[in-house]
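Tokens for chain A. Residues wanted.
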């Protein structure tokens, strides 16, 4: 097997902890000696041993003169766990193959430098894009201090998310809905507006048939007046946090009511687009939300688009056409009058889910992703 094949195995290992490592990255590691894999590992959860440590523990004394494949540069600093680079050196690893450098300023390039100073052969950049994509949210967060924002929307072929009366079950098929629940499990939190809570009373949980114990993301609600009902379905899942942003005009009694039923309530200022997105993102960054999935209605999504805070779009298109001008649009409220002012997307992936379509796209001019070329220059 060649380097890329072993790195693929490391990537697959890293994915096993999807949804559980935040605010840390997903990392997988494989140790190879004599053409045989002697150690495997992945980072399970923040504060627990890193992928390299698990792999070294499995390989034991056989680690001496072996090759370590790891999706992300080994850390060189003391955090909640000791530095991995030091342990790699002590184990006698002869060669280290790294997918990408770590953009964290505490780490970037320093782990490689430490390994090379110890006489270890280091090769960086094997399957770099795949390894970076694995942690696109973490890479963005660690550089910007704000969460990576993904918008999810399910719509008809003519761009409608519900009938004029609000009926939306179901625009997409079973395969698309299962996929969207897995998307939820990949994020730290789901963000919706109060309109969605009042109209649909959603649970906003991950109910996946393919994930044995899916991560349940926190819920973030934009509720300027504090109108979230005390008996809303979002409060039935007690293993997660509920964060509600309110405006200055919300009543103290409503804020206290929400606090009493277990929600965190944060007041932010309002601007022309509603609650101030800048303050919201800063607060989410302080709370170490690395990835946030927006499932709000057209107004929430459009206001975010106008502020240019969206990093990624995941769009599910069903097999229906409504043809009703009064049906609810997926994107509306931006008031753009020139085609040149519209948002241009770069399609990353287009796939069929049964007879539905899934599109993954990024803003063409500001993809919101790690620049691999710059990272690999370090």
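Reply:
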């Amino acid at each position: 097997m060649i380097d890329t094949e072993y790195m693929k195995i490391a990537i697959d290992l890293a994915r096993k902890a999807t949804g559980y490592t935040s605010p840390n990255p997903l990392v997988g590691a494989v140790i190879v000696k004599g053409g045989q894999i002697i150690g495997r590992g992945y980072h399970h959860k923040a504060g627990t041993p890193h992928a390299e440590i698990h792999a070294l523990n499995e390989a034991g004394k056989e680690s001496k003169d072996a090759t370590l494949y790891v999706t992300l540069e080994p850390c060189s600093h003391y955090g909640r766990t000791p530095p991995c680079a030091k342990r790699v050196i002590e184990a006698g690893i002869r060669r280290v193959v790294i997918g990408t450098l770590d953009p964290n300023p505490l780490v970037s390039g320093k782990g490689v430098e430490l390994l090379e100073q110890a006489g270890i052969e280091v090769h960086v950049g094997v399957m770099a894009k795949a390894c970076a994509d694995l942690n696109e949210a973490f890479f963005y967060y660690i550089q910007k201090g704000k969460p990576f924002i993904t918008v999810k929307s399910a719509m008809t072929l003519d761009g409608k998310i519900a009938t004029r009366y609000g009926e939306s079950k179901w625009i997409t098929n079973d395969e698309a809905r299962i996929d969207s629940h897995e998307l939820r499990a990949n994020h730290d939190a789901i963000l919706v507006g109060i309109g969605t809570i009042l109209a649909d009373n959603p649970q906003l949980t991950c109910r996946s048939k393919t994930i044995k114990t899916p991560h349940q993301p926190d819920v973030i609600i934009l509720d300027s007046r504090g109108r979230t009902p005390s008996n809303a379905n979002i409060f039935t899942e007690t293993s997660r946090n509920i964060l509600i942003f309110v405006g200055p005009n919300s009543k103290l009694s409503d804020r206290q009511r929400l606090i009493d039923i277990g929600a965190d309530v944060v007041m932010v200022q309002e601007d022309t687009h509603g609650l101030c997105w800048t303050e919201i993102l800063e607060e989410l960054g302080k709370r170490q939300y690395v990835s946030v999935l927006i499932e709000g209605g057209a107004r929430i999504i459009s206001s975010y688009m106008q502020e240019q805070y969206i990093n990624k779009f995941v769009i599910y298109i069903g097999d229906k056409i409504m043809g009703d001008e009064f049906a609810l649009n997926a994107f509306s409220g931006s008031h753009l009058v020139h085609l040149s002012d519209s948002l241009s997307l770069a399609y990353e992936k287009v796939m069929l889910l049964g007879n539905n379509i899934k599109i993954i796209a990024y803003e063409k001019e500001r993809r919101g992703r790690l620049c691999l070329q710059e990272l690999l220059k370090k």
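The CA atoms of residues 181 and 225 lie 29 Å apart. Residues 3-134 form a domain with the Cytidine Deaminase; domain 2 fold (CATH 3.40.140.10).
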